[in-house]
Amino acid sequence: MAIKGKIESILRHCPPLFRIGSRIYHAMNFGFKSLSAGAPGAIKEAFRLAEELHSGGPIGDYYEFGLYKGYTFFEAYHTAKKLGLRDTRFYGFDSFQGLPEVEDADKSDGRFFEGQFACTRKQVEKNLSRHGVDFKKVQLIEGFYEDILDEQLKKDLGARAAGVVMLDCDLYSSTNTALVWLEGLINDKTIVIFDDWYSFTEGKELGQQRALKEFLQRNTHLRFKPVIEYERNGKMFLVSKKS
Length: 243
Ligand SMILES: C[S@@+](CC[C@H](N)C(=O)[O-])C[C@H]1O[C@@H](n2cnc3c(N)ncnc32)[C@H](O)[C@@H]1O
Hints:
The protein is of the alpha/beta class. The protein has two domains: 1-30, no CATH class; 31-241, 3-Layer(aba) Sandwich (Rossmann fold). It has helices at residues 2-11, 15-28, 39-53, 71-82, 121-130, 145-148, 151-157, 172-182, 207-218, and strands at 61-65, 90-94, 138-142, 162-167, 191-194, 222-230, 234-241. Strands 3-2-1-4-5-7-6 form a seven-stranded mixed beta sheet, sandwiched between helices. α8 (172-182) links the parallel β4 (162-167) and β5. The longest helix is centred in the N-terminal third of the chain and has 15 residues, at 39-53. The relative contact order is 0.16. Bound molecules: S-adenosylmethionine. S-adenosylmethionine binds at residues 34-36, 39, 66-69, 71-72, 94-95, 98-100, 117, 144-146, 168-171, 174.
């Protein structure tokens, strides 16, 4: 992982080379695993904590933004099943065409590009089915967030409170769109995982940190308490209501 990081930071100085390198790396990487080393562990911890906070009762639903091959989604499903969380439903949101056009501040360090992390819906469904996911409690919602996340979708899904939210969609724009849609679903005791918290080296005014800052400016009744940080760029929060 350290070598991969070093090669990546060198190639980032030459965006066309970085894109080619990234495409080759992902095309050769056939395994069913997460792109993020620490994400599976963070998901396990999120569900364990949710179960504890809800004293064994229903914890709410799971919302994941950014599936790629579906591994983190599978991990959430599998963990909840092991814990006996029968009430939880699982929603996965992805374009299944990779990242949208990367614009404005999201362009800043050249790490992300349009079409990156593309994996077809058919392949994701195959991966999940092969690993024992029963689609009765699972729904995959296809499309770019900017086009699909609206109030009608909430009604169509019968969206309920979020128990665990996984935001693994890299960009400020994608995370912001997801967080705007999640307003009202994120509440007291929701656990929110930002897999790209430190993806932008310049910090707070970019990426997921900026998206959360703006969410909290709109939702002044909520507090996000850091729970853990994990490899490579992730951070998990517990939401509570201000008294
Ligand atoms: C880094 S990958 C997800 C990795 C996955 N959770 C894992 O651990 O293997 C990011 C995903 O976010 C999706 N994505 C990002 N922005 C999006 C947007 N605005 N609309 C739809 N999908 C988006 C991409 O298609 C891609 O599948």
